[in-house]
Amino acid sequence: MPGLLPYNLRVVNYRRNKTGNPNDHFFFSIVTEGKKPWFDNPEINGLILEIVKAVEAKSGFKFSAWVILPDHLHWLTMAGTADYSKAIWAFKRGVSAQFKRTRTISQGDILWQDRFWEHTIRDDDDYCRHVDYIHYNPVKHGYVRSPRDWQWSSFAEYVANGIYPEDWADGEDIVIDGMQYD
Known about the structure:
By secondary structure, the chain is an alpha+beta fold. Helix content is 32%, strand content 14%.
């Protein structure tokens, strides 16, 4: 369309919600470029978890819930005093560098979409809905029939801590109010 700037020259008028409260929680979705299923094997997912733990240790993030799917991941974090934009950038950069080192991707391949989706958790109900959403996501996308069958999420930790029964959402189609994310 005439009059539109090329993508790399567009000005983005978006301001991140930095509340200043170290106890605030944020939900993030991070997606691969073109939704390409880069994360569809256990070795890669193990690598991603290592990088997540490194980012958590360096940034001060506290990951409350998470899931890794073949083409995207979701995190629920307490950002503390961390600059979460920088932490997510460090995570993406770390995964990309490791993928290049192991020749999972070639020079010039684009692994990630440029941005990420962020939502500030408003209250306890919003928090619980996002935790449910994260753990139900592999079922929603048809990878498994039960959250317990997807090893690449924090669901097992929640079961071990008595928050979910092991058979939560087992074979069920559930609807989580207000959760129309992908």
